Amino acid sequence: MRALKFFTFLNYFVMGSGCFAYGQRAKGILLFMAQIFYIIFMLTFGVHYLMLFRTLGRTEQYTVWNEAIQIYQVMRGDNSMLILIFGVITIIVSIIFVVVYVLNIRLENKAARLFAEGKKPPSFKEDLHTLWHDKYHLVLLTLPTMGLILFTVIPLIFMILMAFTNFDRMHQPPGRLFTWVGFDNFAEIFYANPRLSRTFFSVLGWTLTWAVIATVSNYIGGMALALLINKKGIRFKSMWRSFFVVTIAVPQFVSLLVMRQFLNDGGTLNVMLMNWGLISEPIRFLGTHARVTVLLVNLWVGIPFTMLITTGILMNIPEDLYESARIDGAGPVTMFRKITLPYMLFVTTPYLITQFMGNINNFNVIFLTTGGDPRTLDLYQAGRTDLLITWLYSLTVNQQDFRLAATIGILIFMVLAVFSLVSFNLLASAKREEDFS
Predict the structure, then answer these.
(1) Per-residue pLDDT for 313 more than 90?
(2) Contacts of 306 (CB under 8 A, 6+ apart)
(3) Which residues of 395-432 are buried (b: 16+ CB within 10 A; e: fewer)?
């Protein structure tokens, strides 16, 4: 008993010793190796980056004159980006180690409880058998979870932390270090920098306006087209649907680039109108009228999707509802208002919400059609048709202003997260799933 108590006490400092004491040698070896790995990782890698994480580097890259070979040599300094990345990785590895450490204590306590009850603690082979047969979902989810942490969680944390630094064109590692600035970037966007603040709220207003109009217009247009094609008396319904499905078969970026060439100042449409004598100078579809143009182009690429979705729903509306309405003397308008539209909204509201959020981040239509143009000096690195997502792209790729881009990314996420959580929880279709079934 004294030996068991000793190993129980030792288990808090040497992982796996408790499992060894109760005959679970394979578990003990794995836990001990995990501890050794963590210690080696921290001593050779983690501690160094954790110490630099507070300042994101101390020594900048510099040059010295080498008298022997008569040239300037570049002396390497710290790299703030690597420090930030490896610091995040070290913190995540440390969190995982804490979880494993707690698991080590729990395994020892479970083994001690079984031993006190006169039972033999399960062997490693028995645990594998239980895991494979009774907890197979954990086996299947392990690899996707690791991929999620590696390719989603770590980049996301890195992006969030970048919003609290001064990482921009003037602070590019390894030549120049960047450091923590707290909430200064958020203050600049909201009030501290008037031009930047004006740009943000202007782009945000257009982004929300664009999302609402693009979503509603596509929905109404697609539903109207589906109703027209499905109307009794219309012949060759499959042919008409096929015509519109062809626009989906063509890759969207191809359609958008063609539309850009078709609508620019020297494009096909302006040339034809001028040749016919209808206009004397080109209409600036991608300039003065750019916002209206992108909304119309979005109808071209978006209505066929809505038409297909609403067509399937229209075909599933019970015909008995329409027959009862006709017997009661209801006309087409009344049936649409009382039967078709409520049914459509009930089923497609989640789709509408998803489309609205997708249109907030609708990068392709804006970037490939207008590129954010027309540009204006009133806004900071943004054009009249820029959405938040295209403005973020411009700040990142063209200006290397990663701090502002990361800050805008966080704000976009907050807007979408709040809207999606609130709207989905308020859906009638989520509260009354049995209706219209």
Answers:
(1) no
(2) 218, 219, 221, 222, 223, 226
(3) bbeeeebbbbbbbbbbbbeebeeebeeebeeeeeeeee
pLDDT in tens, 100-142: 999 999 888 888 888 778 788 887 788 788 878 877 888 888 8
Condensed to tens digits (0 to 9), the pLDDT of residues 25-69 reads 888 889 999 999 999 999 999 999 999 999 998 888 767 767 777
41: left (phi over 0), alpha (psi -120 to 50) or beta: alpha
For residue 63, list its beta bridge partners: 74
Q: Are 31 and 15 in contact (CB under 8 A)?
A: yes
Cβ neighbours, 10 Å, residue 368: 18
Concatenated DSSP letters of 186-224: HHIIIIISHHHHHHHHHHHHHHHHHHHHHHHHHHHHHHH
The position carrying tokens 């509260």 is 431
| Cis peptide upstream of residue 174 (ω within 30 degrees of 0) | yes
Q: Whole-prediction pTM value?
A: 0.84
Tokens coding 152: 């989603």
Q: Are 166 and 181 in contact (CB under 8 A)?
A: yes
Distance CA 248, CA 302 (A): 9
Q: Which residues pair with 66 in a beta bridge?
A: 71
Are the CB atoms for 410 and 422 separated by under 8 Å? no
Q: For the chain, which residues make up each domain, given as ranges?
A: 2-182, 186-431
Place of tokens 């649907």: 241
User: Using CA atoms, how far apart are residues 437 and 433, in angstroms rounded to an integer?
Assistant: 8
CB atoms under 10 Å from CB of 266, counted, come to 8
- The fold of 186-431 is MetI-like fold (1.10.3720)
Contact predicate 208/201, CB 8 Å:
no
Residue-level pLDDT at 347:
83
Tokens of 225: 């087209």
